[in-house]
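User: I'm putting together notes for a lab meeting next week and I want to include a structural view of one of the chains we've been expressing. I don't have a solved structure, so I'd like a prediction I can at least talk through. The sequence is below, exactly as it appears in our construct file.
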Amino acid sequence: MFGLFDKRAIVSDAFTQTFDRQERLRFDRIRRAWLRYEGEWEKPLAPTDLDKNGDDNTTVNLARRTVDISAFYLFGKELGFEVDGESESEAGTWLEDCWESQEDGKMPTLLEFATGAGIAGDGFMRLQEPDKAFGEQYPRIVSLDGQTVTVIWDPMDYKRVREVIIKAGGVDKTENEAVYERHRIMRENGKWVILQEESRGDRAGYAEVSREIWKYDFCPVFHTKNRPLPHSYYGVSDVEDDVLQLNDSINFVISNINRILRAHGHPQQYLTGQEVGTFDRAVGGLAVFPNPEARLHSVEMLSDLGSSFEQYKCLQEAYHELTSVPEIASGKLESVGALSGVALQILYAPLVALTTVKRMLFGQMLGQVNRALLEMGGKKVKSVRVQWPDILPKDREAEARTGGLLTDAGVSRDTVLTELGYDAVAEAEKRKKESEEGRAAFDAGRTDPPTEDEETEP
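Assistant: Thanks for the context. Below is the predicted structure for the 458-residue chain, given as structure tokens.
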């Protein structure tokens, strides 16, 4: 019986001592990103006599919002797969069923995968044969945590992977000892070999538990960068250290404002001319002083903290510029009104650019994964394309008017449909089918005859 360690404990110094310095630095960076994503931030203000518990510290977790928004714009809407140029086919249906058979279904699996990749900087997806003992009919698709994966590549060609190492830590509750498990997926004699190893307690090194020859030509672990980093196997996270440091500065400013307002946000009263007499501080209370020369004074904060709020605003603007996730993507809009398609493109331009780049990276990996899944299902195909939805909402009424104007100007119907995001060939087939059904219904005396357009369509 095993109980898993918290994922952040996996990358402790004791566990990573066998890896080189660069890999440990990578693990540490991913761990910091996970901690921040989960809401564990350094408290910017030290406790004081007036704030012994540090309650003035305030956290604005923009890092989590950045990762979530970026992942949503990538995999937040339903997408499809086109197998060998066909939207609907037996292989395509099998592929959709395979994705939906996963524990969370297709889109939640992809969304979680993109979230993990946004934090770690890289996404790793492992394919496993179905386990008949659990009644599985389709291959399993496992999203791996980037901080548990190490890749060894050809020193002269980082795109040529030699070995993938997957690590996991746990506790054998029966023996009450720590257990570290490691899967080494290596290329040997033209085949991929999966070597399962184990280390227990304080014993040094790993002992071989099992060895399996992967029966397919492709490696069972697939990889994509989250954001491109030239001449490097690993990619860039949505929340690299510079982003987290900027978020730290934002937390400091808002915490400082909170402390100032708590200490000085209300008037400070003082009395001159005598000792404190009867003084009821409640609303409508009465102050009674025996000495008629006594005076009660009030000191109010002169500043409205305008400079502090301006700094907070400037830091937020810098943060959104750095991450390519504009404030409007979080639902913040200074003025509410109908926005044209051009205005939306301008406001969302950084996020559209980022999502487009991610679609290139993730889309290529998904094509490889889907071809591998189909091969595991006994179906050989040439290509699998991702059918991406529109990144931004569109004004369908305005687009329809524009399409009509283009048609009147002489632009072909196929070109107009393609510009609007439709498959012109598929639409022609559907119109032809509708026309035939309409004529058949008319012959049976059940409806109006086909229109002139329907009769003349190819």
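A couple of points you could mention at the meeting. The first helix runs from residue 13 to 16. Residues 86 and 92 are 8 Å apart (CA to CA).

User: Perfect, that's what I needed.
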